[in-house]
Amino acid sequence: MTELGQGTSTPPGAQADAHGINFSVFSAHATRIELCLFDDDGNEQRLPLPGRTGNWWHGFLPDGRPGLRYGFRAHGPYDPQNGHRFNPNKLLVDPCAHWVEGDVPDDPRLYGGGDQPDSQESAAVAPKSVVVSLEYDWEDDAPPRTPWGQTVIYEAHVRGLTKRHPAIPEAQRGTYAALAHPAMLEHLTSLGITALELLPIQHFADEPRLQREGLSNYWGYNPLALYALEPTYASQPTPQAAMDEFRDAVKTLHRHGIEVILDIVFNHTAEIDLTGPTLSLRGLDNRSYYWLHGNGDYDNMTGCGNTVRLVDEEVVAWAIGCMRHWLEEYHIDGFRFDLAPVMGRTPAFAPDAPLLKAMLADPVISQCKLIAEPWDIGLGGYQLGHFPAPFGEWNDHFRDDMRRFWLQGHLPLGRFATRFAGSSDLFGHDGRRPAASINMLTAHDGFTLQDTVSFNHKHNQSNGEHNRDGASENYSNNHGHEGLDADEEVRARRRRSQQALLTTLLLAHGTPMLLAGDEQGQSQQGNNNAYCQDNELTWLNWADADASLTAFTAALLRLRRQIPALSRESWWEDAGDDVQWLNGQGQPMTVQRWERGPQQHLQILLSRRWLVVINASERADDVPLPPGLWVAVDPFNQDENRPEHGLWHAPARAACVFVRE
C-alpha cells in the first residue's frame, strides 16, 4: 500500500524531482482531499493528502515519476444555498496541472448541480491530470522586448493560421510546429509583424450544446486547465513532445524578432452554470473560486455561465502562478486578457483590485506586455481606459469610429483626429501613453475586414443559434451588394475602402493590431461570430490570398517604421514636430473648423515630411496639397496618385500618403 509523506504547500500542483512527486492543492472549505492515482488500465488508488498548511492540502509520493495520471476528490459540505458543492463522486482536475489527458464529453456522470449531491461516479469519463517534466534546453533564447512604440500585433488562431497553407507539410499544418515554419516566418517578417497574438492555447473544452449539434469550440474560450497546453494543436501526441514543439516555435519566433502573446481566460471556466459539469474548481471550493448570488447561483458576468472570483489571496496566487508558468516555462512575452474587468472585480471593478495590484508588483509579470479586453457583461463592465499602466487595452472606439468615418460617413473630424492621435480622451491620464490604445479594425470576434466591406448584415446561421448570436451593429457597408459575388465596380470601391481603413489603422498613433487574414482578403462569408466553426470557413485560404492587398499592407508597415512620430511613445503636440492638422485646402485647421459638423476632407502632416490626405466623401474630388513638391509614396505611388498643379485627384473614399521632396 502506497503511503504519502507530508510534502509541502509549495509549489502548487504536482512537482516531480529525483525522489518523487509533491502534490499541493487549495481548498478553504474542504474537510478532506484525496489524491487519486490511475494506472494504464484505469485502475484507481485513493490516498488522503496528509498535510495541511493554511488552506493548502499537500502530500509527497515517494518514487513518483513524470507520466503519472492523477486527480483529486474533495470532501466537504454539500450546501448549494451557501455555495458549497463538495461531492467526492466527482474526479477533479488539478487547477495547476501542467498537462491534462482526455476530453470533456457530454456525459451525465460529470453533472450534478441539483439540491442533493449526484451519486454517479465520474472517474471513467473525467479528464485526468498528468505529471510532466518541465525541463527544456532554451539554448540562447532571449525575448525580443520590442518597445511598445514599435510593436505591431498579428492576432491569429494556431490551427486557422496554417491549416490550409500549401507550403507547409500536411502533417504540420494547423499545429504549433507550423507557427515557426519558414513559410510562416517569411510571411510575418515580410509583413512587418513584431508580435504574434494567439487565441487561447490553454487546455479547453467543447460546451455540451456544441457537442450535441456536432460543432466544437474553435476559438478556445472555454478553459479547463489554465496551466496546461492544449494538446490538439500539437503534431506529436505525447506531453513532452507537444510542450517541446510549442517551445521550439517560441524560440524560433524569438530568433526572428517576433514576440508571442497569449490570449488567456481568467474570467470563467468550462464548468459553465448549475447545469454544467463538475470538473475542477466547483468541486474543490466552489465558494472560493466563483462569484455567487445569495441563493448560491452563479453571478454570470461573463455570459458563459460563471465568473471566477479573483479576490482571495490563494485564488490570486493561482492566477499569478499561472502567468509566471507561461512566462518562465514557455518564454512567452505577454498576455491578452479576455473579459479583463473580471480580473479587477471586488465585485465592482477597481484598478487597484487584488489581482491587478499583484500583477503590477510582480517583477516578471509587470515587465511583459499586458493587454486587456476592457469589458464584460456585468454591472459597470465597460472599463475602456480605466486599467492601470502599463496595460494596453483593445480600443473598440477606434474600430467603430474608423468604420463609421470611412463606411458610414457621419463622424466629426475632431473625433477621427482623436482616434488617429492615440485616443487621449481615453488614455491621456495617470502616466499612460498612446501605445496603451490597441488600435484595431477587426478581431477574431466580428467581421473580417473583407466582410466589413461586403456585408451589411451578419450571416451566422451555421452556428446553430438561428442567427441570434453575434453583434447586429457592425458599422459595415456592402457598397451596394450583399455578399462577395459583386461586379467589378463594387469590388473596386470595396478595395479603396479596405485600403483607406488599413491606412488609418497602420499609420495611426498607438499600437496597431491586424487580424490574421485581413491582409489577404480573408472572408468568413458574413459570419461575425465564428466561435464554433473549426473548418474552412475560418481557416485562412492561402491559395486564394490577395497578393496585392498583402503587398499594400506590408508597404504601409514599412512606411510606419520610417515616420518618427508613429514610434514616439509620448503624446503628440499639435503644430509641433510630430503632427500638423490641415483642412481639405491644405491650410491649418482652426477651432471653428474642428467644431463644424461631419466633414470628409483632412490632411495630416507627420514629422514635418509625410502627408496623409483623406477624402472620405462618396465622390471624387481635387484636393489641394500644401505648398511644396509632394510625391506619393509606396504603396500609393501609382500614376493616378501623381499630383498635378498641386492637386491630388482623389477617388471617393480614399486615402493617400505623400512625402515632401
The N- to C-terminal Cα distance equals 85 Å
Classification by helices and strands: alpha/beta
The shape is elongated
Strand segment tally: 28
Could you characterize what this model shows?
The protein has 661 residues and is of the alpha/beta class. The protein is 22% helix and 20% strand. The protein has 16 helices and 28 strands. It has an 8-stranded parallel beta barrel with strand order 12-13-16-17-18-19-20-21. A hairpin with a 3-residue loop joins strand 23 and strand 24 (610-615). Helix 9 (396-408) runs antiparallel to helix 13 (488-506). The longest helix has 19 residues, at 488-506. It starts with 12 loop residues before the first strand and ends with a strand.
Short précis:
This protein is 22% helix and 20% strand. With 661 residues, the protein is α/β, with parallel strands linked by helices.
List key phrases describing it.
single chain, 661 residues, five-stranded antiparallel sheet, eight-stranded parallel beta barrel, alpha/beta
Topology:
Elements: E1 13-17, E2 20-26, E3 32-38, E4 44-48, E5 51-53, E6 56-62, E7 69-75, E8 78-79, E9 84-85, E10 100-101, E11 128-130, E12 153-156, H1 158-162, H2 176-179, H3 182-191, E13 195-198, E14 202-204, H4 208-212, E15 223-229, H5 239-255, E16 259-264, H6 281-289, H7 313-329, E17 334-337, H8 354-361, E18 369-372, E19 392-395, H9 396-408, H10 413-420, H11 424-427, E20 437-440, H12 449-452, H13 488-506, E21 511-515, H14 547-562, H15 564-567, E22 579-582, H16 591-595, E23 601-606, E24 610-615, E25 621-624, E26 630-632, E27 647-650, E28 654-660
Parallel strand pairs: 12-13, 12-21, 13-16, 16-17, 17-18, 18-19, 19-20, 20-21
Antiparallel strand pairs: 1-2, 2-6, 3-4, 3-7, 5-6, 7-11, 8-9, 10-11, 14-15, 22-23, 23-24, 24-28, 25-27, 26-28
